Amino acid sequence: AGSKLREVFDKINNLLSGKPVQTEGQTVSVTQHPQGLEFVCYKLAEKFVRHGEGEVSFHRDSAFPIAVVLSGIWELHPRVGDIFLAHLHKKCPYSVPFYPARKEGTSMEEYQRILGYEVHDSKVEEQDHFLKRMSGMIRLYAAIIQLRWPYGNKQGAHPHGLSYGWRWLAQMLNLEPLADVTAMLLLDFLEVCGNALMKQYGIQFWKTMFFIQKSYIPRIEAVTSSGQMGCLSRLKNFVQKCLQAEEIPLPKGVLTPSFWRT
User: Fold this and answer.
1) pLDDT given at position 163
2) Can you tell me the distance from the alpha carbon of 219 to that of 183, in angstroms, rounded to the nearest whole number?
3) Are 239 and 212 in contact (CB under 8 A)?
4) Inter-residue contact 137 to 88 (CB < 8 Å)
5) What is the mean pLDDT of residues 12-36?
6) Contact 219, 165 (CB under 8 A)
């Protein structure tokens, strides 16, 4: 509910503003310790990224309520946004976007960690689980860049707005694609913020969609084995439907004005 989201936002904002906040039966304030504010910014940013790889990966629509709160906090407390990006880029290098190469002397285990895989006791997480987590973080990022907290003053620009999404898409299409990962990330990103990018960039956006269809999808196909075609097929269908309709559908779960009256 919109009213519940406002409560969450106010509580986080009050905490970061140095006001006393009630939590779990006790009153806390960042002024209680010299590094209190820095610690809270760090843990809060980390928590938002965890919401992406956990909550959003399982409940895709939850990207929007989480993103709108973070967007508003980022506007008022830029430090949280900076640390959020640092956590996000470390956990999901594809959000840069960047495909890390294996450096000489790096063990396979360490390299898989750098790629974003979770490694516990030398056991690497399964590919499906890894892709699901990356998907959740990209969807959260794609929601953040297009959303603003509706109760802010709106005087300045969005602290990390759509121009960053446009840049992400351009950089992504300049990278050599990876099997599995690239098709999934592009589909997630376009599903969540394709509509907003279309409205903002018009003809330039459609040129990019045409490039994806004619040039980039065949490049993904060239590195994809027959057992990894699922996501690529979905990306192909999505791009084709959008180009035919000359329209990108609004993402599922987007927050409508009526949501804020709940």
Assistant:
1) 95
2) 11
3) yes
4) yes
5) 91
6) no
Delimit the domains of the chain by residue range.
Answer: 1-261
Phi first, then psi: give them for residue 26, nearest 5 degrees.
-135, 160
Fold of 1-261: 1.25.40
How far apart are alpha carbons 84 and 89 in whole angstroms?
Answer: 9
pLDDT over 80 (residue 174): yes
Answer yes or no: are the C-beta atoms of 9 and 149 closer than 8 Å: yes
Q: Is the pLDDT of residue 224 over 90?
A: no
Cα 86 to the center of its chain, rounded Å: 13
* Strand-strand pairing, 26-28 and 21-23: antiparallel
Q: 27 by DSSP, 3-state: which?
A: strand
Would you say residue 114 has pLDDT above 90? no
Model confidence over 118-150: pLDDT tens digits? 888 888 889 889 999 999 999 999 999 999 999
Neighbours of 226 (CB within 10 A): 5
**Rounded CA separation 16/28 (Å):** 11
- Helix, strand, coil proportions of the chain in percent (round to 5)? 70, 5, 30
Asked if 149 and 69 touch (Cβ cutoff 8 Å), the reply is yes
Can you point out the beta strands (E) in the chain? Answer: 21-23, 26-28, 119-120, 123-124
